[in-house]
Amino acid sequence: xxxxxDQLLRVIFxxxxxxxxxxxxALEMAVRSAMHQAGAAALTQLLQFAEPSAEQRAIPxxxxxxxxxxxxxxxxxxxAVGPAQVARPYYLCAHCHSGQFPADCELDIExxxxxxxxxxxxxxxxxxxxxxxxxxxxxxLADLTVTAKAVERTAEAIGEDIAARQQREIQRAVxxxxxxxxxxxxxILYIEMDGTGVPVVKKETAxxxxxxxxxxxxxxEGKLGCVFPQTHWDxxxxxxxxxxxxxYVGAIETAEEFGKRLYLEAWKRGWSRAEKKxxxxxxxxxxxxxxxxHFPGAIQIVDLYHARQHLWxxxxxxxxxxxxxxxxxxxxxxDLLDQGAIKRLTVALRSIHTDxxxxxxxxxxxxxxxxxxxxxxxxxxxxxxxxxxxxxxIEGGCKTVIGSRLKQSGMFWTVRGANAILALRCxxxxxxxxxxxxxxxxx
Length: 443
Description:
Blueprint: H1 2-19, H2 24-46, E1 58-60, E2 66-79, E3 82-92, E4 99-100, H3 102-107, H4 116-128, H5 131-142, H6 148-174, E5 186-199, E6 219-230, E7 232-233, E8 239-240, E9 247-251, H7 255-268, E10 274-281, H8 285-294, E11 299-302, H9 304-318, H10 323-338, H11 342-350, H12 357-372, H13 379-384, H14 392-406, H15 415-429, H16 433-442
Parallel strand pairs: 5-10, 10-11
Antiparallel strand pairs: 1-2, 2-3, 3-4, 5-6, 6-9, 7-8
Helix pairs in contact: 1-2, 4-5, 4-6, 4-15, 5-6, 6-15, 7-8, 9-10, 9-12, 11-12
């Protein structure tokens, strides 16, 4: 290694004498490259396994027989410092003709030519950005040359493994085999949930209708839930939260499946220890069905800003192309909403007369919406308890957790691929990726 560095430095200083300046970036990158080459050479020496001793020349085979040692075989593995050669014993079973490389299991390189360290990097860049950008990050930051497809395959494979582990946890939770959660009581714990469309390949929307009548769907709904505590509020009584305290779960799946996933996350976060429990969402029926099924007794709050949007939508229908009239109408009716006077608001809406059947239907739908959610719109009462009345956390989560990764221009996903990346992304954003990775090192 010292000889390689000396040669490198001579070349650089010769260039300096010619140009009169020293390019520090070129120098540090060149030194890094030389150190990687030396590190790969050192790894290659460390990864040369000896032939097994006489008593280790036969090992158990999955067929019940014993596989015999045949020879040492080599393969190239891409490591964090570049390509390295691994030479390890090869065993072959004469009965079922299956070959084995026990050392590959020990090194966690079975059926792959990429080291655990590199796979870990590929997973992290793959969950964070488009796969080709991840490839570029690997080249720039780690001086490793990989393909975008390699980043995709690794990120999705690790995401699928995380998702499979989560499913096993969910199944245990269904059987009431829940993890033990110890800690102090939590003053307030929130659950928020929402859905957002994820662009998918055509086969994933076969037979599904889109939002436009008569048109096929181009997206599948990705459901996202978050859990976070609230411990205090500001001097004016508005609730405060620590953004780093929020954890997420998400997948493209049925509401029934998602409800189990969100319940397990809430349990992990201390749902059983919360003195006050709150569920916030928009008016989607599936949200309140899940709240009733999995979180009975929790305070239910319809996002105030979403409720205001319902009023604005009606105002535009009542006074098209007349912003002054729209604002005047909103001034009266939004005040009723903010005061929690939902009964009066509903009466006011149902008293609107129109000969337009389409508008009459719109008025009826909105009046039913407010009537149905009246108990979830007691905003003055919620504010006196210093509670959040908006679902900004989950709406922001839909953008940062799902949108910024899965909804970029030109992206179309399979449900399997989207769920794998979403599982990996939530694991990383929740600060649990190291918890996932550590047991793999210990195997």
